[in-house]
Design brief:
The complex is a heterotrimer of chains A (about 325), B (about 325) and C (about 325). With about 325 residues, chain B is α/β, with parallel strands linked by helices. Chain B contains twelve helices and twelve strands. The chains are: A mainly alpha (about 325), B alpha/beta (about 325), C mainly alpha (about 325).
Chain lengths: ~325, ~325, ~325
């Protein structure tokens, strides 16, 4: 088990390194000049050259990459002489735009994205899984048909459409809620909740539809398994047959999918955040894109990869914990 | 009193393509301490019959009567049937790897049934599980009770499946192809185990199989099924000595025999099992029947023939059988 | 796995069998097709797809009839005193502008939707084609040859799937400035799309490789290339068709999302994503402008999902999942 974990962690590190290298290569090989970006608008050629030296942009790409990777863990000193800035672990460099450490920028925005992702996940799990289980247990009835028709329609709705309809109905027509803006949970829990309801719903609708369909198929497939028939043949009450012997294996793939989706969303739901102007990592990314703020784009790409890779690991561990057959290391 | 009496049992399913009549009008009885073998190809209705007795068909129309120890099960409240299932009628399924739950230990799966029916404590149920695992010849039962099905070998898994069936001391065991997935030597061990348990406990057994070798080894009475109904029914020794239905004869001819000379060739039955959706008119076997092929008798394509007594406790559904009193 | 209850054909000597008269020996494809034709949802989906494909192809003809091109400005159709809102109700629907006009510039929405359909479908179909080619090639190679080849390809797929694809696509699209956006978009979508189908194909190939008839072909000394072409690929066709159909709605959505975020198709080329991005600002005052492209997007995505689901049921009743 320990050996398996170590191997997985090593593979994870390698994957992240590859992603890091690719990201790095793309950004630093492409035409736009980071030094000019960093320097600002009215910059003389000499000043740009100075910045270039300060940022070490004249070094070979491999050296720059090595410095970047080592810098993440060991920290690094950027610039020299009076301009020198010490950047400590975890060091992802400084934003060209705001001159703030990229790490701090990301960590400032992470709670917003995490609030959005986790809240939406709770909502879509409650809605999607219960609808899916219900449809599977009432297979072929009007309940099943309603769930299937609704979910296939909802899953085809573009996310902007859902957001705009919600905004139009809830804010413009009825005025039930104000136009959402992010309020930190610590500041005002009620306001936090009220302002996140619409973004959560927007994100949850699409996922709930997907989860309902997947849950339904999984439950139907599992209830046809011979071991469920064995549970019935043992004389267990139907409640227990379905609840213990049927649902547990049926929901295992749902747990797997949840891990993947959450991993993908933690580093920001780009469209949802920009639709509702939520100051999350996704919004930061979109803003940095417009300003070609490469260190921030780099940092967010790595952060997002980290979330995805580690959620893969968590999913596999959880799987092994649920299903003993997967425990063979 | 007769342990299990099945009368005119029929099972129908509605499918997208139409109504499937999987079983039509089957009768049989099982006494304590005796074994009924039900033999037939896949699709002959033998497994469907066993699941109908257990009340495990969902969404099927079941007709006729199943009386277990004097209680009518068809049409009985689900709760009544459920309390009998696992407690007094237990089932041994074909492939123990898929029939046992992959997420729970063998011990837990056995203890669960025992607790359900006996209201025993967790500890007592656990002890019971270890005891029955020992009874079916699993070495180190206390340790193995804590293992998962995939950690067992095929033979040991089938023994565990039998232990699960035995845990609540049932009166009747329905074994659906219990040895099909096993090696020949292991197969013999598992059959011997079932026979020994039957002698010790006076169990009634229904042995469902496509393998006449298994029938010859364990059955007291035999029911041969074809296309959802009975083709022939007789005590085992009589059936093997004097098979009367062309299908039974075909089955026996396709079996290798040690006492046969080298000149005797094995003959397969031509064709494939009938569609249950649109079965042949009359005798379901007539399209493959060598007798019909020799002489096209209109009786064979009239009504589906019922069993008729053709000898002492010997019944045959072939319309061409000359009844010998 | 399941007992073949009634699946065995009533063949053999079933002379008196009424079922055999009508049921001529049907190929699996004909069987799947007839199963598909009976499903209303699948046929609806197919009809919607055909409708939009025709609309996209006939865009020049249709705009010639309507008399308004996608880039024709019509200042008379908008009210400059009201912030450039379309004149008339429902976003300016009139005999001149069948589906109204854009606010501000007064461009014809009907024409822009048609030309937008061209772009959206072109991007989706081309990347679907590329994804299928790459995914099948690598998936079959990994599954069939196994060993080191499989290890390398599988590892590569894992890495690709660990990429935060949307973020990476955006980053890639945003830094590449002076290239053909259309080609780049297709390239980027394909680059991150192929591992999903490759993984499924690999799994299927792996199980096919151990089937008796493949083993038999190999024992006869048939070359690998021939086995792949005659034994493996024909058996994968169903899976490939299903997965391509189900990948297309995702690709259409991704194109719209990327364009919406400002890194996809650039103006003045019309595309649905870009129309939606423009219209979001006007959702309160000119809902029609917003509803029309969204509805097109919704219908096409829905159509492909319906068809894909039905195809999966018809070609692959077990619903192969990984």
């Amino acid at each position: 088990m320990i050996g398996y974990l170590l191997r997985r962690l090593l593979a994870m590190a390698v994957t992240l390194l590859v992603i890091c290298a690719l990201t790095f290569a793309i950004f630093y090989l492409l035409p736009s000049d980071p030094a000019a970006q960093f320097c600002g608008k009215d910059c003389s050629a000499e000043r740009i050259e100075l910045v270039r030296q300060q940022l070490g942009l004249n070094d070979p790409l491999v050296v720059q990459f090595g410095r970047y990777v080592v810098g993440i863990f060991a920290g690094q000193t950027l610039g020299s002489g009076p301009y020198a800035v010490r950047c400590d672990f975890p060091c992802f460099g400084y934003s060209f735009q705001s001159a703030q450490p990229v790490w701090d920028l990301m960590m400032d925005r992470l709670p917003t994205s995490a609030s959005l992702a986790v809240g939406a996940a709770v909502l879509w799990l409650l809605l999607g899984v219960s609808a899916g289980v219900l449809a599977a247990l009432r297979r072929g009835t009007w309940v099943d048909r309603t769930v299937m028709v609704t979910t296939i329609g909802l899953s085809a709705l573009p996310v902007y459409f859902i957001a705009m309809i919600l905004l139009y109905l809830v804010v413009t027509v009825t005025g039930l809620l104000p136009y959402p803006r992010y309020i930190a949970f610590g500041e005002d829990p009620g306001g936090w909740l009220a302002n996140l309801i619409m973004p959560w719903t927007t994100l949850a609708v699409m996922y709930a539809a997907l989860y309902a369909r997947m849950t339904r198929n999984s439950v139907i497939e599992t209830l046809a398994e011979p071991y469920v028939r064995t549970a019935r043949a043992k004389g267990l009450p139907e409640r227990r047959v379905v609840g213990k012997h049927g649902l547990r294996p049926a929901l295992t793939p749902v747990a797997t999918m949840l891990g993947m989706d959450l991993g993908g969303l933690l580093a920001g739901a780009l469209i949802t955040e920009s639709l509702f102007s939520l100051p999350g990592v996704g919004k930061l990314f979109a803003d940095s894109l417009n300003k070609a703020d490469q260190p921030v784009i780099m940092g967010i790409t790595l952060l997002a990869s980290f979330f995805i890779v580690s959620s893969n690991l968590v999913v596999d561990l959880v799987y092994a914990w649920i299903d003993p057959r997967a425990r063979l290391a | 009193m007769t342990l299990l009496q099945v009368t005119d049992l029929s099972v129908e399913f509605d499918t997208a393509e139409g109504v499937v009549r999987a079983v039509r009008g089957v009768d049989f009885t099982v006494e304590r301490g005796r074994t009924l073998g039900i033999v037939g190809e896949s699709g002959s209705g033998k497994s469907v019959t066993s699941l109908a007795v257990m009340g495990l068909h969902r969404g099927a129309r079941i007709g006729g009567s199943v009386r277990f120890d004097g209680t009518e099960l068809i049409g009985a409240p689900e709760e009544t049937v459920r309390r009998l299932r696992g407690r007094r009628i237990a089932m041994v399924f074909q492939d123990a790897l898929t029939a046992l739950h992959p997420y729970f230990t063998i011990g837990d799966q056995i203890a669960e049934a025992y607790r359900e029916h006996h209201g025993a404590s967790r500890k007592a149920a656990r002890k019971r599980a270890v005891d029955v695992l020992g009874d079916v010849g699993i070495p180190e039962p206390a340790r193995r009770a804590g293992e998962y099905p995939h950690e067992f070998s095929g033979g040991m898994r089938q023994r565990a499946m039998i232990a699960l069936a035995l845990s609540c001391e049932p009166d009747l065991i329905i074994a659906d192809e219990p040895t099909t997935a096993l090696d020949v030597t292991v197969q013999a061990q598992v059959l011997d185990l079932l026979m020994r348990l039957q002698q010790d406990r006076g169990l009634g057994i229904v042995m469902i199989t496509h393998d006449l070798g298994v029938i010859a080894r364990v059955a007291d009475d035999v029911l041969v099924m074809y296309g959802g109904s009975a083709a022939e029914q007789a005590p085992a020794d009589r059936l093997f000595a004097d098979p009367r239905h062309p299908y039974t004869r075909g089955l026996l001819d396709s079996l290798p025999r040690l006492d046969a000379g080298d000149a005797t060739e094995l003959r397969a039955i031509p064709g494939s099992p009938p569609s249950l959706l649109a079965p042949p008119a009359g005798c379901a076997f007539h399209p493959r029947c060598p007798v019909y092929a020799r002489e096209r008798n209109p009786l064979c394509t009239g009504d589906r023939p019922a069993l008729r007594q053709v000898g002492d406790a010997h019944h045959n559904a072939c319309v061409l059988d000359e009844v010998t009193p | 796995m399941t007992a073949p209850l009634a699946t065995a054909p009533a063949g053999g000597a079933g002379a008196a069998d009424p079922a055999t008269d009508s049921a001529a020996p049907a190929s699996p494809w004909a069987l799947a097709l007839s199963r598909l034709r009976r499903q209303k949802a699948a046929m609806t989906g197919l009809a919607i797809i055909v409708f939009f494909v025709l609309a996209a192809l006939l865009a020049p003809v249709l705009t010639a009839i309507s008399g308004k091109g996608p880039d024709d400005l019509d200042k008379k159709a908008v009210n400059t005193y009201l912030g450039g809102l379309p004149r008339g109700s429902l976003g300016g629907i009139s005999p001149q502008h069948w589906l109204g006009v854009e606010p501000l510039l007064g461009r014809d929405i009907f024409a822009r939707l048609l030309y937008g359909a061209q772009i959206s479908l072109l991007v989706a179909f081309s990347s679907a084609l590329l994804i299928t080619l790459i995914g099948t090639l690598l998936g079959v190679t990994a599954g069939y040859f196994g060993g080191r080849t499989d290890a390398v390809i599988s590892r590569f797929m894992d890495v690709m799937m660990s990429f935060p694809s949307l973020i990476f696509m955006i980053a890639l699209l945003s830094v590449a400035r002076d290239v053909n956006r259309l080609l780049l978009l297709i390239g980027v979508l394909s680059l991150f799309g192929w591992p999903y189908i490759a993984r499924v194909i690999r799994g299927q190939t792996l199980s096919l490789r151990h089937r008796e008839y493949v083993e038999a072909a190999r024992a006869c000394g048939t070359s690998s290339g021939r086995i792949l072409l005659t034994e493996i690929l024909p058996n994968l066709t169903g899976t490939i068709i299903v997965y391509v159909t189900l990948a297309i709605p995702g690709l259409i959505g991704a194109e719209a999302a990327l364009t919406y975020l400002g890194v996809g198709i650039r103006p003045p080329t019309p595309s649905w994503g870009q129309m939606i991005a423009d219209s979001v600002l006007y959702y309160k005052v000119d809902p029609m402008f917003f509803v029309l492209p969204s509805a097109c997007l919704f219908l096409v995505v829905l159509a492909f999902t319906l068809l894909g689901d039905a195809l999966r049921d018809a070609l692959d009743p077990k619903g192969s999942r990984t």
